[in-house]
Specification:
With 297 residues, the chain is an alpha+beta fold. The protein is built from 3 helices and 14 strands. A 4-stranded antiparallel sheet has the order 4-3-6-7, with no helix packed on it. Strands 11-10-13-14 form a 4-stranded antiparallel sheet, with no helix packed on it. It is rod-shaped and about 90 Å long. The protein starts with a helix and ends with a helix.
Length: 297
């Protein structure tokens, strides 16, 4: 019995000694290799943003997407789309991307640029969209990110500054006054031509103004003088070709208004008494004291 056990144990001990003493290679002794499992393949949209904070109506959009991946063991073909989240509707097919992954160490990221996108700025307001990345092999959504595109309404404004000839801020009759009109615009979707008018007891053309698409500024000057003193109300207007007012600014001022010197006024008896009340009390007290002293002498 003991001999049988020895015969059984001896080969096992020899095998254990052989494994410990003799160096092993992975190809020769698979039993000595501990398997190492790679991480799960994955994708992520790290960033999704537009090139502008807001757009004018009809302006094209440039979209940037930073896509990252890790632990890829094979090549993946991805379909990238843009969806409107409110209606869950695909509005742009942004194309496909092949991501190489020859080993489980394939980890990287890339920034994708999608420019000249149209149809996203038809109306003013803010709309939420979602970038969706789909693996074409499995049809599964592997990454997504939301962003907002804002479309602003057109804005054209006027502001006016004036300066009189001697720069004392008092407009005298026949004194030349220079008005500077500043035109500022933003989110205009096309270049246009307007006319700048001033209404000063009658409408006068100052000059033409060209406005470019997007935003910008311009300025025009108007010089005048008034022969007589009085109140004046000016209305500066920017008009389109049909004569419609697209922006305006009104300004009120007075010609011949100067600081008037204070006129002396006649003081009444009551005013004199109020102004000298303490002196009167002292005098009456002295008179009273003198009367008392004279009476008891």
């Amino acid at each position: 019995m003991r001999m049988g056990r020895a015969l059984l144990v001896a080969p096992l001990l020899a095998l254990a000694l052989f494994i410990i003493v003799i160096p092993l290679t992975p190809t020769e002794y698979l039993i000595a290799v501990t398997p190492v499992y790679a991480g799960t393949p994955g994708f992520k949209v790290k960033e999704a943003y537009t090139d502008k904070a807001a757009y004018y109506i009809g302006e094209s959009v440039t979209l940037y997407v930073v896509l990252a991946w890790e632990n890829l063991g094979q090549n993946y073909t991805l379909d990238i789309d843009l969806y409107e989240t409110v209606n869950d509707t695909k509005v742009q097919d942004l194309g496909t991307l092949t991501v190489p992954g020859t080993t489980y160490e394939a980890t990287d990221e890339t920034e994708l640029t999608f420019d000249s996108l149209t149809g996203l700025t038809a109306e003013p307001g803010s709309t939420e969209y979602e970038i969706r990345v789909v693996d074409t092999g499995s049809g599964l959504l592997v990454a997504s990110a939301k962003l907002t595109i804002t479309v602003a309404e057109e804005s054209i404004t006027l502001s006016v500054a004036w300066e009189d000839a001697n720069d004392d801020r008092v407009i005298e009759p026949n004194e030349q006054v220079t008005f500077t009109v500043f035109i500022t615009w933003a989110f205009v979707n096309a270049s246009r031509s307007y006319n700048l008018f001033v209404d000063d007891a009658g409408e006068h053309l100052i000059d033409a103004v060209s406005i470019t698409a997007g935003g910008g500024t311009a300025q025009r000057t108007w010089v005048t003088a008034w022969p007589s003193a009085g109140a004046r109300t000016l209305r500066f207007m920017l008009k389109d070709a049909r004569g419609d007012v697209v922006a305006e600014r009104s300004l009120s001022l007075t010609v011949g208004q100067a600081a008037q010197p204070a006129q002396p006024s006649k003081a009444s008896i009551l005013d004199l008494i109020k102004a000298n009340i303490y002196l009167i009390i002292i005098v009456l007290a002295c008179v009273g004291a003198a009367v008392v002293v004279a009476k008891y002498r």
